Amino acid sequence: MKKEEFADLLGEIDAQYVAEAHAAQARRPVRLRWSILAACLCLLIGGTTVYAASGHGVWITDIFTDREESGYDLAMDMRKIDDSELSAELRALGSVIVQQYKDSKPYDSIWPGSYYKSFDSSAEARAFIGYKPLVRLDWELEETSTQLHVTGWRDGRLQWINLETDYVVGNIRLQAYTHLFTEHYGGDMFTGLRTTEEISFTPTDETNISGLPWLFVRSSPMESGWSGLDGYLVRDGVLYKLHIAYLAKDAAEAERLMFEWANCF
Amino acid sequence: MEDNQIIQLFWDRDPRAVEAAAAQYGGYCTAVARNILGSAEDAEECVNDAWLAVWNAIPPHRPAMLSAFLGKLTRNIALNRLKRDRADKRGGGDAGVALDELAEVISDRSTVEAELDRRALLEAIDAWLGGLPAKKRGIFVCRYWYFDTVNDIAARYGMRENHVSVTLNRLRADLCKYLRERGFEE
């Protein structure tokens, strides 16, 4: 019997065992990929087990470096946002998502439940979201693009909102994320990063000029020569993240930009 | 919508049946396919094939557990596609590694050809699984039914990756011994 045939046979094991394992899978993190460094890195959002808390809003729960995949998991301590704290415009996207489900055909390649919208500026996007405590990054960098991604249930209740604003400084690429979970989000908070290469990560706990703790993770260079810096900070129920991709010659400037970002809060 | 309502829609040949199944289990089936194929695009195509397959299968089939039925259909379609892709030296997710691991359990020389033998082997595997503690059974099923990565399993069960790998090694060896003792291997 070939291994493929044996795998086929295993497909027929008692359905109870399959369902039992599926129940365990229901606790697995939901992974969302955002393209970074030629699609090699991704940020994860979802639920996971929290192993230890270090007293600030986001902390490392696991770091791993393997030949084919490296990454780390983070847990966050942040509150979920009430619908009433969001703008009417944003909440109205619930009806768009309801319609997506109604219009969805099973053979469509696009799944319903997600809404994307581009904005001319992050200020415009923040106004659209309407959550008053959202922090405006007070720095001089020129925004190259801003995109909002909202997910919701089929009944129109919004689950989470992610705003991504990109910047370019010379050869340095920056991606700033603002992430909110609504009261309707069902899982625990989870974030993290994955690569398809064997690289290492060095996390350090930092404090910004306002005394707010934040997490700084430095990644070793990838085969392409690009390295990554990631900063995570939680404030007023919002996860802020900055990913910086840079080449070795720009290392000092990339570090400077990361600390500048953290001091915006 | 409850599973029996979805199944009834299929029996009534109601076009909303597939929509209801997709809404309830689309994510689950996509995860099953993506674990095997490694590509989101391939997984979506595979799941779309699964909706057609379930439309054709119900009726006459009336699955007792819809999630397992849909998962199994998706798994079969994805595995068939993986075999084709591997023959063409294309892509594939972590399933290729898991398949290689399974080769340790049963040899190519084993002649479980007849349906009766196949059924007996399946019953033996079910019995072996039934004798395992729930956690170990879950780890085995996650790896060789769902083709989850070792990393995913470690995160889910709160274990270190190395511990998961060692557990899987021992489970494969134990299954191999169990089957040999029952005459399934030369």
Overview of this protein structure:
By secondary structure, chain A is α+β, with helices and mostly antiparallel strands. Chain A has one domain (28-262). Chain A has 6 helices and 12 strands. Chain A is globular and about 60 Å long. Chain A has helices at 3-10, 15-25, 88-91, 93-103, 122-129, 251-262; strands spanning 42-45, 58-65, 70-76, 114-119, 143-152, 158-169, 172-181, 191-195, 201-207, 213-219, 226-235, 238-247. The N and C termini of chain A lie far apart (62 Å). Chain A has an 8-stranded antiparallel beta sheet. In chain A, strands 1-8-3-2 form a 4-stranded antiparallel beta sheet, with no helix packed on it. Chain B contains 9 helices and no strands. In chain B, α1 packs across α2, α2 crosses α3 (40-57) and α3 (40-57) crosses α4. Chain B is globular and about 50 Å long. The mean pLDDT of chain B is 83. At the A-B interface, α1 and α2 of A face α2, α3, α4, α5 and α6 of B.
Short description:
By secondary structure, chain A is of the alpha+beta class.
Q: What best-fitting shape of chain A do the alpha-carbon axes yield?
A: globular
**What low-confidence regions of chain A span 5 or more consecutive residues with pLDDT below 50?**
27-55
Strand neighbour order, sheet with most strands of chain A = 4-5-6-7-12-11-10-9
Structural class of chain A: alpha+beta
| Element order of chain B: H for helix, E for strand | HHHHHHHHH
CATH topology name of the largest domain in chain B: Rna Polymerase Sigma Factor, Chain: A
Average pLDDT score of chain B: 83
The major pleated sheet of chain A works out as:
8 strands, antiparallel
Name given to the CATH homologous superfamily of the largest domain in chain B: RNA polymerase sigma factor, region 2, helix turn helix motif
Number of strands of chain A: 12
* H and E string of chain A: HHEEEHHEHEEEEEEEEH
Beta-strand percentage range of chain A: 35-45%
Distance between the termini of chain B: 49 Å
